[in-house]
Amino acid sequence: MKFNTVKSSRKGSRIINNRMLSGGTVRHLKQPNFKIFVINLAHSTERWQHVSQQLDRLHLPYERLDAINGKSLTEAEINAVFSTQLADKYFHYRLTRGEIACYLSHLKAWQKIVDEGLDFGIILEDDINISSLFVEVPKRIAAFKAKWDFIKLAAPFKQQPYDVIESDTRLHVVSYRRKPPMGACAQAVSFSGARQLLKLRPPVFRPVDVDLQWSYELGIRTFGLVPYTVDNTHQHSSDIFAVENRHHARKSAWRRMKHQIALYFDNKKTRRKTPRL
Q1: For 15-29, 118-132, 196-210, which range has the lowest pLDDT when averaged over its residues?
Q2: At what angle do helices 191-200 and 97-115 cross, to 10 degrees?
Q3: In terms of residue numbers, what domain contains 77?
């Protein structure tokens, strides 16, 4: 199982339209070279039907990405990608097989972005509800002027305060004051972001949504797009828990407190480098 074979080539973008500027100058706007990937386990047919019907209604193209099943991972495959040493040092418990498989599924999506030379990929998990405004997301991302690596499209759990750094009439790019919100059900990842993430992972040692809060450590530029256009359904049973319940893992309260303090300072460093309006 290999995820970090990073290619440096990129495919070209196509012209989507022209915009007339003052003085009669024409600026050519490039159509972004992107894909929507939906991570889905082969046996989760109900989830696939739910998410694909929503995307079909919005007339958006998408591609199913076969998720990795934690139950099918061998010990050798787990040992090749998961570091117990790093988990014991930098997290407060050792990941379950389901959490490792979830991370590997996202790694698979990042590898697709790099292998196909995409400008960015929109990565969705399959237990989501999508708003009608989601149809505007690709072109809003393409119009974002600052350099970016990762854009949160959902905040299904605790909300995090933010500042608007670039705005239009419907969707606004934001930077987070403390840390990005938890949850990995919907995000955009740029070519540069996918390549950077693949340089550092594997090994994995935190759940993917927790790990992606460490923007400074990972060397990625993280933003959000609000109002959030995707949410968890909050009704499907967890595919991660179906493999192994994370609540049964042995946890260290002391290491958790150290982890939270370190994450605070990681995001404080990130904040200093974030552009403002």
Answers
A1: 15-29
A2: 130
A3: 34-273
